[in-house]
Amino acid sequence: MEQDPFDIAGQEIDQIAQRNKEVLQRQQEIADVLAIIKTAAGRRFIWRMLGIAGVYRSSFSSDLAVMAKAEGRREFGLIILADVSEADPMAYTNMLKEQNK
């Protein structure tokens, strides 16, 4: 159905509804991450994914295709790390301590 370009109030209502939907979706995503990192197995899994992603390794390579692949993997790891930090600011520190035991 086409939106009436003159129905400003209707458009604003649609925008608010869309923002609310996005906020609820983000809250669910963070709750899911929190459920994962509350378990030792979940923290080990996330730690392994961060290692595979190479979050703390340089993605530089003289081969541009290799570098692009490494940077994409690293970017994904940074997204995971940001979600973990948003869900629980101390989670990364706790994972680090657990891995150094």
How would you describe this protein?
With 101 residues, the protein is mostly helical. The protein has one domain. Helices cover 76% and strands 0% of the residues. It has helices at residues 8-37, 40-53, 64-87, 91-99. The longest helix is centred in the N-terminal third of the chain and has 30 residues, at 8-37. The mean pLDDT is 95.
From the structure above, extract its key features:
101 residues, mainly alpha, single chain, 4 helices
Spell out the blueprint of helices and strands.
Blueprint: H1 8-37, H2 40-53, H3 64-87, H4 91-99
Helix pairs in contact: 1-3, 2-3
Helix content: over 70%
Helices and strands, in order, run as HHHH
Query: For the residues shown, what is the average pLDDT?
Result: 95
Strand count: 0
Unreliable spans: none
Distance between the termini: 59 Å
Strand content range: under 5%
Radius of gyration computed on alpha carbons: 20 Å
Tally of alpha and pi helices: 4
Oligomer: single chain
Largest sheet: none
Number of domains: 1
Q: How would the global form be characterised?
A: flat
Give the structural class. Answer: mainly alpha
